[in-house]
Amino acid sequence: MIARRFAPQRLPSRRLDLLLTLSIFLCLCLSLCGLGWFFLPPLIHEGKSLVVQMKDTTAAEVQNTLLAHTVGTWKFKHQFGAPADPRYQKGMAQFLAAGRSGEGLYQEFPKLHSRLKAEFEAEYEQAQVLDLQSQESGVGVSFQKWFMEFKAPDIFHSKRDYYVSRWQASQTSEEASQATDDKPDATSSLTQPTDFESRRDERIRQRIWADVNADPVLLAQLRSEWAQAISIQRWTVFRESDAYQTEFQQFYETQFADPSNNIPIDYTYFDALATAYPKGKQAFLQVVDQHQQTAKESPEHQRFDFESATKLDLGQQWWATSPMADWVREHATEDGPRILEAGVKRMDQALGHVLRIPVQIGTALLLAVFMLLEWEGVKTGVANIRNTRLRSVFDEIAPGVTALGKLIGKTFQGQVTIAVVNAFLTLIALWIIGVEYKFILGLVVFLLSFIPVVGVILSGIPLCGVAILQPGGSLLMAAQVIAAIALIHLIEGMILSPRIIGKIGHLHPVLVIAILLIAEHFFGMWGLVLGVPVAIYLIRVVLLDSPIPGIYEPDRKRQ
User: Fold this and answer.
1) pTM for this model (two decimals)
2) Residue among 271, 269, 272, 263 nearest 300 (CA)
3) CB 178 within 8 A of CB 200
């Protein structure tokens, strides 16, 4: 089709088709590399920060944060109102008079400390990786040394027979004779490597090094792995050095200067509190009292302290006395471990599928290129089946198979476009609302957009969770996220889907959910992606034999 537009007066040219196919494939690869160059660094940074922060967070801290940012915030607003409300001012005066100054900061300090350390570690490690990957002088030697010491032995061990046979085939008669003379006799040790084996293994490792340098993709992957390993090693040494505190202080002051980061105290105060926190609450509050004697706290700090402590108190009070909380605790105790185990299992399976997606997409793209290069031959070969004894079978099956391929292709193409638009709109909405980990959540939305109907619900769970649990999070922020998701879904349902996919993918939502449950049970992640178009084919083509506009028209004459 594209070839006809470029040269409408000429007969179809195989050379032009090949050139256009390779050009489109190259443009697609360059586009993906450009998107990866723009989105991958912040995505990796957020991922590392999130992993480090999750390691330092306990279940009790998550529970307290959830109570304070949901029930505690709602009861606080109902009981005290805004800062200008007389009830608020009276409550804060009673809080300070009772000597509770610093309790709110004590409760929020672990989250603040963990978040800043995680951000600093992720930023430092990413900077080290980029620095190592950008170096030109000296990198080859260091990389080669690392490869020969750690990776080459593993590759040799996994493909020992292959490399030994290659080495033997490459030996000249003189080298083979010399190698025979160097071989140990029967009385030699069987447990220690001989000089012959050592020289042979060294030459094989050099051959492995040459093979790796001849493969640009593998070489780039190993260089990235090397940079990651070296950066982790540098980080371990850096943590024990005197320069760590200096670098962290500079990082902290940069973050403190940005009001959007919600950091309530300066670095000097933070460092004193970080030293006192492991010693217990009394030592922590003593540092707070000493600071208040030397520097008067601002009204913003007092409000932060009062609100943090009071919200947690109200949330814990509800958790201890509410019948609904008793019901939640009862079911959490009985069903919690089972649900958690099932959730971890599903997450592990989903992560495995996600990690395999790049390989599967790359394989599919290469296969598509090879098929397009030989497309005329493929069509001719398939059409020749009609000239055999299988003609009747071919005439019966071919239209349906063609319709299924077109249906899956058009549906998947439309879902990719919709997923990209949904992820982009979600990224903008999260940036406007102020939700953290925007790029990770945008990736979650992109992946879950391939699942019809249910994907919207599933993507809302982590988005609302982050909106509630992050510093400064609340039910109001979660409600804003839900409103943004609903608006994006409305745009998808009323504008994107009708224009991109049309009515070919229309099924009742209840039927879609049932199909997804069955498809996921039997086929996993790919069942969620392909279950609906396959079900549409089975219902519309196989059972009803009804037309699908632009894809399938039933043969009424045959009937």
Assistant:
1) 0.68
2) 263
3) no
